[in-house]
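Record pair follows.
FIRST:
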Amino acid sequence: MRSTRRAASTVVLACLLLASCKSGSLGTSTSSASRSPAAGASGSAASAGGSSGPIAVGAGPQKHYTVQQQPAAGSCHFRYKNGEPLEDPKCTPGAISPAVTQANLKSTICRKGGYTSAIRPSAYVTGKEEKLNAASYGYTGSMRDAEYDHLISLQLGGDPNDYRNLWVEPADPGHRSGSGVNNKKDPVETKLHTAVCKGQITLAAAQKAIVTDWTTALATLHLG
C-alpha cells in the first residue's frame, strides 16, 4: 500500500515539475514574440537609412493628397559637405514614384508641356508638412529661406508626397537672410533631368546619384 502511495506521489510530483517547465517555456516564448515586431521594425528602419540598398517606392501621384506624418521632432540631423546642407539618410532616404519608369519617360518626365505641375501636392498639404518636418530636423531658421524639397525631384521621378522623399532644406552658405529660396541643388536636378531625357544616363542612375550625395551627383555620372 505504502509503495503504491509512494509511486502515486512520485507521478504527481513529476507531473507538477513537467507542468512548471512547460509554463516557463511558454512564458519565454510569449515574451520573445511580443518583442519581435518592435525588433523587426527597428531592423527595417536601420536598413532603410543610407543609400546602399534599393530606393523605396512610394504611392505615386494621387488625386487628393493628405498631410503625411513626419519623423519625431528632433530625431533628424542635417549633414554638411563643403558647407552645403545634406539630408539625414535615416529620416529622408528618398522614395521614387511607381508611375515613372525608364520605359515611359517620353510620356512622363520628358514629355513636352511639363509633368511636375500636374502631380505636385497643394501648398495647403506641403505647408503643414513643412512645419512638422522643420521640427523633425530641429530647423529654427526662417521658413522663407528654406525649401521643402524633394530629395529625388519630381522631374527625376521622385515620389510627390512620400515623407521619405521630402525634407526642409536650409539655405546655402552665405545666403542673405530673408532673400528667399536659393540653393545649388536645383541646377543639379535640372542637369540630371536633361541627361536622362537625352539618353545620356539612365533614370535609375540619376536617382541613385542624387540620393547618395547631390553635391557629387554630376561628377559621379561624369556630367561635369
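SECOND:
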Amino acid sequence: MVLQTENQITLQEFLNLPPGEGDITYELVDGQIFPKMSPKKFHSRLTRAVLCLVEEWCDGKGEVFIELAIKLTRQQRDWVPTPDLLYISHECLPANWDEDTACPVAPDLVIEIISPGQTFGQMIAKAKDYLNAGVLRVWVVDSQARSVTVFYPDAAPQTYMGEELVTDSLFPELEFTAETVFTMAKIPK
C-alpha cells in the first residue's frame, strides 16, 4: 500500500514528516511513501534473536540498530528504507552524527526478516538495491525455510540452513548457525 501523495515527495519533505500514528514506520521509494508492516510474533522473536547475536559480537566494533531509517540512493533517486536491523562499524559511523535522524551512510550490514505477505523474490530485489547503494552485506532471514541467506556485492548469495556455520571475513569471529537463530527465537519446526 502506498500513502497517496499528489506529487512525488522529496527526501527532505520525507525526513520532515511528523512521526506516524501508533507503530507505523514508513519508507521512501521512488518519491512515494510506503508503510512498513508492523512485526508479528515470529518476526519480533527473530529480530530479538539476531539482535542478541550481533550485539554481543559487535561490542567495541560498532553499533547495531533496530528499524533505523537509512538515507540511500536507489536507481539514482533518494531511497529511505528501514531495515529490521543494521550494523555500522565504528570506522563507517560518522563522528558528527549526533542527532536523532536517519542514518546518513550505508551500513556494513543490513538484516531483513521476511514478513507474512513478503516473498523471497521481493527480498532478493531489495538486497540487490541495498548492495548497489553501498551496503557491504545483506542477510535475509526466512522463518518458513528456516534459513539465513547472505548477499554479497561481488559473489553469488549463499543460503545457510540447519547446523551449517554462518561466517564472513567482513565480520571476524561472528559465527552462528541458522538453527541457533530459530531455536533462540523459539520458532516451531
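COMMENT: Residues 41-58 form the longest helix (18 residues).
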